[in-house]
């Protein structure tokens, strides 16, 4: 199954038809992952693995159905996330994000400005001019001896900690299965990545996009979340029904909607996996825009939106260098995960 993307382009004549035709040819496949999870033979596993790797080579994005995470589990996480963001601002502020090495805690609206730039001064200027209109809560592995998660009091958010820790583990387990499929699709041994991702150096991000008058987003560079790629191996994205995620067609540069599909997860390649694969797998730019609805004859408002992202990373001490079967000449020098991730976070937030 494929989802045919659509796009609205403000242009005319041949240029408009050209962009529309290009967008119509951009597809994000829906892949039934149960065929991998329940496969009775290596041949069956390899068929699904090849589908996944083919999509990651072309668009960098897939929808995954029958992924094994129950809908009730996802719904509960969304409810607990919504309850968290409804807490008073001063309570959330006590849990504020403080350090890129930790990457844990509450990030208030306007603190982050995602971008492809690595220049701190440029990012600061962008953040001052056009901050991202969202807030988030960042959660890491809870047994870390150096960096601790920042949890709300149980009385303020009943069941929040337990729900999120269970979901963190569930997402990690799916990440392991997905990386096994990628290994097979790259003609590596199925367990090639297992020991390189087992320390669970991931980031569970709860995202809230409050309603806002559309006029406030119409300025130069304004967005719910600006154009960017992700940092790690894979991102598992759980969307609500509002929509707003757009993915850039690598061939045309046109952004096309990744329309929410019930019971699926959007999964995309991050920068480190692209680098690991010597750009055989594609880390694709994407952004979050703002669907709008009329609230009067003269004004529109963007509705509230929720999403949950699980940013999967290799172990922090894993050296990322060109994988076997991904070219004879490496495009990038080796780098360890921690150096890369902390560097990107430092530029984004500080």
UniProtKB/TrEMBL annotation:
Keywords: Iron, Metal-binding, Oxidoreductase. Residues 200-314 form the Fe2OG dioxygenase domain. InterPro entries: DIOX_N, IPNS-like_FE2OG_OXY, IPNS-like_sf, Iron_ascorbate_oxido_reductase, Oxoglu/Fe-dep_dioxygenase_dom. One of its GO terms (molecular function) is oxidoreductase activity. Transmembrane segments: none annotated. Belongs to the iron/ascorbate-dependent oxidoreductase family. This is Fe2OG dioxygenase domain-containing protein.
């Amino acid at each position: 199954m494929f989802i045919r993307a659509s796009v609205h382009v403000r242009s005319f004549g041949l240029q408009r038809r050209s962009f529309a035709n290009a967008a119509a040819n951009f597809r994000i496949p829906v892949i039934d992952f149960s065929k991998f999870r329940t496969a009775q033979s290596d041949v069956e596993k390899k068929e699904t693995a090849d589908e996944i790797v083919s999509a990651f080579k072309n668009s960098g994005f897939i929808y995954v159905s029958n992924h094994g995470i129950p809908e009730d589990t996802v719904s509960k996480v969304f409810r607990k996330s919504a309850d968290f963001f409804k807490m008073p601002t001063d309570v959330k502020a006590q849990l504020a994000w403080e350090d890129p090495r930790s990457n844990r805690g509450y990030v208030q609206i306007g603190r982050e400005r995602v971008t492809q730039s690595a220049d701190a001064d440029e990012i600061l200027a962008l953040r001052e001019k056009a901050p991202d209109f969202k807030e988030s809560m960042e959660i890491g592995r809870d047994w870390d001896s150096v960096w601790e998660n920042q949890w709300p009091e149980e009385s303020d958010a009943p069941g929040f900690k337990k729900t999120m820790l269970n979901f963190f583990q569930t997402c990690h387990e799916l990440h392991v299965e997905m990386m096994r499929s990628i290994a097979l699709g790259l003609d590596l041994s199925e367990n090639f990545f297992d020991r390189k991702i087992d320390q669970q150096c991931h980031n569970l991000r709860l995202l809230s996009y409050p309603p806002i008058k559309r006029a406030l987003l119409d300025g130069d560079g304004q967005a719910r979340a600006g154009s960017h790629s992700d940092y790690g191996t894979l991102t598992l994205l759980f969307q609500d029904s509002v929509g707003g995620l757009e993915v850039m067609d690598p061939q045309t540069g046109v952004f096309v909607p990744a329309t929410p599909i019930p019971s699926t997860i959007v999964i995309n390649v991050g920068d480190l996996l692209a680098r690991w694969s010597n750009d055989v797998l594609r880390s694709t730019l994407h952004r979050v825009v703002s669907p709008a609805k009329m609230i009067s004859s003269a004004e529109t408002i963007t509705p509230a939106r929720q999403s949950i992202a699980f940013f999967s990373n290799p172990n922090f001490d894993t050296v990322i260098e060109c994988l076997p079967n991904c070219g004879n000449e490496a495009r990038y020098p080796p780098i360890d995960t921690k150096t890369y991730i902390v560097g990107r976070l430092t530029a984004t937030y500080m």
